[in-house]
Amino acid sequence: MEDLEMLGRNVRRIRGERQLSLGALAQKSGLAKQTLANLEGGGGNPTVDTLLRVARALGVGVNWLVTEWGSPVLIQRRKDGIWDPAGSGRRRILDHIHGSGDVNTAIVELTDARDVAPPLSPAPSTTSTSSRGASSPAQPKTPAVSTAETSSASPRT
Fold it and tell me: Which Pfam families does the entry link to (predicted)?
């Protein structure tokens, strides 16, 4: 029963993200509105064909419908955090989530900004054309460089 409830939550969540009404999803999938309502309510016994139709109509793989998404709440006290050396700074892992891939959320502190590569920019052009059609050497543009001392990311829920 839990699996069907999870399936229903996922269908309802993804349908909401796509801003589809139940009727619109029924039309796109070729399924009855009542069938979809039962599915979202955690009832029924959907066939593989039904799951494929719903997944295609939502634009996702079937695994998105049958996988529990999200992560449990993790509480980590500041004093319990473990800092690992990472290049020219240090890193502290806050969370590790495995869903459709591995996601590590970490705090990264850079201690030596000289080791940070500048952002990539397009190669400067070697010639420019004036309105009269004559070519002259172009002045390369210097890209703006910014260095972050501390960056952090938060987990998606």
Answer: HTH_3
